[in-house]
Specification:
848 residues; alpha+beta; eight-stranded mixed beta sheet; five-stranded mixed beta sheet; 26 helices; binds ligand BES; binds zinc ion
């Protein structure tokens, strides 16, 4: 097939590369890369295929003998050395190539960002650096020499020598090329150290541009906390004497786990109370942890091929989520993770891009760093943990590290360690990895003579290319509450394996209220006839924090759906919110999560799922109206909370104060619909931290106000692009729909807007994609604008253009007018000559 890679075509690489030695002579326009590969043939008669793209070959030699064009085949994908010309035993291959980092706007391979050199090699960036078997199952020892006049020269592993204009690095751990990294620039370190529990002293450095040093302390602390946690929770210690993190301003993703030299998007390192929000702090800590945890789950044990990506990403997301649950408020973190999963992954699974956590074909691997691989991949690991219990999970992981250290593995290897340690057959469970789609559980119940019966059936709707969906193995955590609110059956994990199953609970004095899918024990959609009164009861009494929130969320969603169809608001919901506002016992962060209404996209998805055609304008109006109703009905209580929960004293990003600020802002969001923005304007004026400053500004912008505050904010922060991204995001996402497209165009054409920087582009256009009624405007202006920008970005940065095209994932939900506009926009993109493989694959799937 044209340009399709298939899982079933996997073959081991026929050569072993014990070591590779690289020399970089850095120059913006003409960097020379000299590579020496020590090769041992593993299969007689095999050609040696080396990937290489956009490389100018300078010279090539085998065991010191120069090769000439007749000795090899060179095309735009790489270099092939025919078997006939290769020795039967070990040999040495040397290449010299020239590349141009300053011209590299795709930000894959070696590129420049603000005068500094850096690399991004996952998934297939190394082939833009030199000719090499650029696949994760080829693991080799890397020795690196960097020649440059820049003051700081870094690579993986340990420094082994340096002098004026050069430095050498050696990484003792064999690794695939995607974990290679090089950084050179004028950088400053914030340093610390960590002693592992077996006594190894590790130097820690956070490297940033001069001037940013005062915003690194939090990241350094987060790194040390991550190292401690991985020792305690997984028994994993760090394995080098040095751990470097570098912040770069131009970066396609969040961060990258290169061995001993993690490279981060600067927005995920730099934090100060004035410039970063509470959410930024939490995210920075989580991403530092994530990349650090990859040292074992990704680096020491890597992936055999890119189809196995969720082996490292799903597991490492599960690990970083567990870490944050442990170091912050566990219940609240679970709520945030599930809300994100539903907003991104359920949406993906319900649309044209649906795919399994382990896909079996792709055209461009960059397009598979998805919510399904990451977030659903993490849920699948979480289900294994709940099926086996904490000890069973730990035993399986111990065996995984023991058995597979130093290897490039598959999902089959992973499942086998769970089977071998538990003695269970997990072949049905494996469907979670190999099939797409979100299962739906339909639950009915009966109560008679003290016996309560739950009848559960499961179905999974078809997804593109997958019609048949056999039943899955699903852990369903349930508890039962008595009518007075006591828990009569504590959390029990039921195991579903069949299309239809029933479960009996005996000896109950009265008909219980079930609390189903506690902690969101499986990534499924639960369908059960329930009443608003029952949801209000669970919101008040459930012992499971996730299900308390879920009950409130369900009430809110149902009210909003009814209102969007022109019906009235439910009193049960309004009253339940009133009780929650007044509930001083409940954690403030949790109350804030409960007070935030479902977003417009979530309401649209829910309406579409029940067969309605969502109207973005009606949804927006309903949501605003409900906020106003809450503010009118509970104004006095809301004002009391607002006035009493101000956080005083020095700023701390900890969960306690952050939760109080979140509650105060959630309350302010409601009050702002009624007070003309007076309180938000006052908060903006007196704010001493970014959480409150941008929080207040967001609310004003959403009211179509805040012009003065936007100008004041810009005047103060114009020299800080990361802070200005929040300003752009606010306007892209929250400007009322009638003005949104025009605002985005104005900001996008302003002289200070460098749209080649992924952070700039994502803040403005990503914000706009989240402006539900603005993006889905009925005249098609939102889609047209978005398509214009994708086409402008694609020639320079295909990876980011392709990722952002997922804004078009939901167009089939809407009316025929909107659909026609969306199809026109997608067709216009598809018909553009010279489209990147990345964006071409995406628009093909989105339109298909
Ligand atoms: N390995 C990835 C980074 C990556 C992704 C490189 C795609 C190349 C292509 C890294 O570990 C990662 O997953 N980063 C996430 C953040 C993380 C906390 C989920 C990211 O960059 O968004
Ligand atoms: Zn990762």
């Amino acid at each position: 097939m044209d340009g399709v890679t298939l899982l079933s075509d996997y073959k081991p690489y026929p050569f072993e590369i014990a070591s590779v030695s690289l020399t970089f002579r850095l120059d913006p326009a003409a960097t020379r890369v000299l590579a020496t590969l020590d090769v041992t043939p593993r299969q007689p008669g095999a050609d040696m295929v080396l990937q290489g793209e956009d490389l100018t070959l300078i010279s090539l030699s085998l065991d010191g003998r120069a090769l000439v064009p007749g000795d090899y085949l060179l095309d735009e994908t790489g270099l092939t050395l025919p078997a006939a010309g290769l020795p039967a035993g070990p040999f040495r291959l040397q290449t010299e190539v020239e590349i141009a980092p300053a011209a590299n706007t795709a930000l894959e391979g070696l590129y420049m960002s603000n005068g500094m050199y850096c690399t991004q090699c996952e998934a297939e960036g190394f082939r833009h650096i030199t000719f090499y078997p650029d696949r994760p199952d080829v693991m080799s020892r890397f020795h690196v020499r960097i020649e440059s006049d820049l003051p700081v020269l870094l690579s993986n592993g340990n420094p082994v020598g340096q002098g004026p204009g050069w430095a050498e690095w050696d990484d003792p751990w064999p690794k695939p090329a995607y974990l290679f990294a090089l950084v050179a620039g004028d950088l400053r370190a914030t340093s610390g150290s960590f002693t592992t529990r077996s006594g190894r002293k590790v130097d820690l450095n956070i490297w940033v541009r001069p001037g940013d040093e005062d915003r690194c302390d939090f990241a350094l602390g987060a790194l040390a906390r991550s190292m401690t946690w991985d020792e305690e929770a997984y028994g994993r210690e760090y394995d080098l004497d040095l751990f470097n993190i570098v912040a770069v301003d131009d970066f396609n993703m969040g961060a990258m786990e290169n061995k001993g030299l993690n490279i981060f998007n600067s927005k995920l390192v730099l934090a100060s109370p004035e410039t970063a929000t509470d959410t930024d702090y939490e995210r920075i800590e989580a991403v530092i942890a994530h990349e650090y945890f990859h040292n074992w789950t990704g680096n020491r044990i890597t992936c055999r091929d890119w189809f196995q990506l969720c082996l490292k990403e799903g597991l490492t997301v599960y690990r970083d989520q567990s870490f944050t649950r442990d170091v912050r408020l566990g219940g609240l973190k679970r709520i945030e993770d599930v809300a994100a999963l539903r907003a991104r992954q359920f949406r993906e699974d319900a649309g044209p891009l649906a795919h399994p956590p382990r896909p079996d074909r792709y055209k461009e691997i960059n397009n598979f760093y998805t919510a399904t691989v990451y977030e659903k991949g993490a849920e699948v690991v979480g289900m294994l943990a709940s099926l086996l219990g904490p000890e069973g999970y730990r035993a399986a992981l111990d065996l995984y590290f023991d058995r597979h250290d130093g290897q490039a593995c598959t999902i089959e290897d992973w499942i086998k360690v769970f089977e071998d340690t538990s003695g269970r057959d997990l072949s049905q469970f494996k469907l979670w990895y190999t099939q797409a789609g979100t299962p739906k559980l339909t639950v009915t119940e009966a109560y008679e003579n003290g016996t309560y019966t739950l009848e559960v059936s499961q179905t999974t709707p078809p997804t593109p290319g997958e019609e048949v969906k056999p039943p899955r193995h699903i852990p369903l955590a349930v508890g039962l509450l008595s009518p007075n609110g006591d828990e009569v059956v504590p959390t029990t994990v039921l195991e579903l394996t069949e299309a239809r199953q029933s479960f009996r609970f005996e000896g109950l004095a009265a008909r219980p209220v079930p609390s189903l899918l506690r902690g969101f024990s499986a990534p499924v959609i639960l369908d059960r006839a329930t009443t608003p009164a029952e949801q209000a009861f669970l919101l008040a009494h459930d012992t499971d924090p996730f299900n308390r929130w879920e009950a409130g969320r369900t009430l809110a969603r149902q009210t909003l759906m009814a209102m969007a169809r022109g019906e009235g608001a439910q009193l049960d919901y309004l009253d339940a919110v009133g009780r929650l506002i007044a509930d001083e016992e409940a954690d403030p962060g949790f109350r804030a999560a409960c007070l935030r209404l479902p977003g417009e996209d979530e309401i649209a998805a829910a309406l579409f799922a029940r067969g309605d055609t969502p109207d973005p304008d009606a949804i927006r109006a309903a949501r605003r109206k409900l906020m106003k109703m809450l503010a009118t009905r509970h104004g006095a209580a809301l004002t009391r909370v607002y006035d009493s929960c101000a956080v005083t004293g020095p700023y701390s990003p900890d969960a306690g104060p952050a939760g109080r600020r979140a509650l105060r802002l959630a309350v302010l969001a409601l009050l702002t619909t009624e007070d003309g923005g007076a309180r938000a304007a006052a908060l903006f004026a007196e704010a001493t931290n970014m959480t409150e400053s941008i929080g207040a500004l967001n609310l004003l912008v959403a009211e179509g106000k805040g012009q003065g505050q936007l100008a004041a904010f810009a005047a103060r922060w114009s020299k800080d692009p990361l802070v200005m991204d929040k300003w752009r995001m606010a306007q892209g996402a929250l400007t009322p729909p009638e003005d949104a497209a025009e605002t985005v165009t104005r900001l996008g054409t302003a002289p200070e807007f460098d749209w080649k920087n992924p952070n700039r582009f994502r803040s403005l256009l990503g914000g706009f994609a989240a402006n539900h009624a603005g993006f889905h405007r009925v005249d098609g202006a939102g889609y047209a604008l978005y398509a214009d920008w994708l086409l402008r970005l694609d020639p320079l940065n295909p990876q980011t253009a392709a990722r952002m095209s997922t804004a078009f994932e939901t167009w089939r939900r809407y009316d025929t007018t909107r659909q026609a506009h969306a199809k026109t926009a997608l067709a216009r993109i598809a018909a553009t000559p010279g489209l990147s493989r990345d964006l071409a694959e995406m628009v093909g799937r989105l339109a298909g």
